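QA checklist item 7 of 12: single-chain prediction sanity check.
[x] sequence parsed
[x] length recorded as 252
[x] structure emitted
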Amino acid sequence: MAEEIREFTVEDLASFNGENGAPVYVAFEGRVFDVTASKLWRGGMHMKRHPAGRDLTAEMQAAPHDVTVLDRFPQVGVLVAAEATWPMGPGLPPVLEQFLERHPFFRRHPHPMTVHFPIVSFIFAPVFTLLYLVTGYGGFETTALDCLAAGLFFCLIVIPTGLITWWINYGARPMQPVTIKIVVSLCMFVDGLAVLLWRLLEPSVITGAQVARILFLALEFLLLPMVVVVAWLGATLTFPLGRKKRTGTGGP
């Protein structure tokens, strides 16, 4: 006789987290699956970022694999918690939701595909400026300007797609890394725009009066720590640094 399908509340599900020998259960769109047999869930953690004993519906929207992978495992119950929500994210406009359903590529790809361009551009803009100051070769100064322009252009794509990705994958819920990324990204854009306009309106600023030159270079090199902060936080969201050590057997 088939195993009885039981009803789980959020609190019930939380106890099946793989710790201390407990089974490993996860929920998706109201169904609860037993993934204990999966090596990728050993110890109750998947890829060092998805803990078991939770409703992973929203997180699965950003997964690199199809959700049918869960159908390989037995369904042991249904999630009945009233507060559980199973759409892509709260508050999505119907038009956007329909668009993403028809074109799932845009659900998670545009932001990670483009985010590297402003990072690289804003790193190399001050690097080429430094090379120009050291060598006096005008080509380096031109390349620095090109990098600034490219970084600003891609920010116009990366910032909106990042906000949409946060909205879709995390329900736009408050998250400290995301909040810091938003603030620093906007500051980086304003800083880069100021540097580019100053350089275009006053080409001699980099070799002119000492006070203006120092201020200009300070603004340009300020891009480096801001890029590092944004890139670091983005990487930790995708690949968390670690988790608390579990007392159960096995590891992820």
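[x] summary fact logged: The chain has two domains: 6-79, 94-238.
[ ] second reviewer sign-off
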